[in-house]
Every structure is written in structure tokens, then in C-alpha cells.
């Protein structure tokens, strides 16, 4: 089992979650589409050569974003990350994944 955490602008929250859930991620027992969301402010500065969805190269940008946390079976994590990358509006989406210890 993996934990997948990603950050997405509020404007694209539902499409990205839908794509990730479509892979089977977010299932806990007899429940699916399970996640936890936290709203916050993301900050970044696109460097020269970047093609940012929001902002301009060289300028500091802050965006209202949502942190989404969910679990994902081992055999689905690659598909979940691929779905995240395919639907996320950012050129380089921020995400983390790590294996969970089984108890």
C-alpha cells in the first residue's frame, strides 16, 4: 500500500481527483474515492525556459491550492501517478508517494 499526496490548484481539483480515482486509487475496504483535503497557498517562481500554467518566468507566484492525500494499492501506484501527471495543469506537478508499513 502507498500513500499518494499531491498539490493542485482549486480550479482543477475535481478533474485531477476523478482521474486518479479512476485508476482504483483511494479505496479503503468497502469504500472508494477516499481522500483528505487541506487548502493552502502554493508558491513557486518559474525559471527561464519554463512554460508555466500560471505566472511568468522569473516572477514569484502564489496560488490557492489543495493538498490531496489518499492511499493506493501497490499495483496501482504507477497508473495513479500517470493519471495525475496527465490531468494536472502544471508542467511539473508537486507530489509525493511512499510505501506504508503493513500492520
UniProtKB/TrEMBL annotation:
Gene3D superfamilies: 3.30.70.120. Signal peptide: none annotated. It comes from the Bacteria. This is NGG1p interacting factor NIF3.
Amino acid at each position: 500500500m502507498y500513500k499518494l499526496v499531491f498539490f493542485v490548484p482549486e480550479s482543477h481539483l475535481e478533474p485531477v481527483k476523478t482521474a486518479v480515482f479512476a485508476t482504483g486509487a483511494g479505496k479503503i475496504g468497502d469504500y472508494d474515492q477516499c481522500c483528505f483535503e487541506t487548502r493552502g497557498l502554493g508558491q513557486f517562481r518559474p525559471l527561464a525556459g519554463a512554460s508555466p500554467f500560471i505566472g511568468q518566468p522569473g516572477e514569484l507566484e502564489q496560488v490557492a491550492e489543495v493538498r490531496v492525500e489518499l492511499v493506493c494499492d501497490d499495483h496501482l501506484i504507477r497508473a495513479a501517478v500517470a493519471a495525475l501527471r496527465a490531468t494536472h495543469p502544471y508542467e511539473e506537478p508537486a507530489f509525493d508517494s511512499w510505501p506504508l508499513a503493513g500492520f
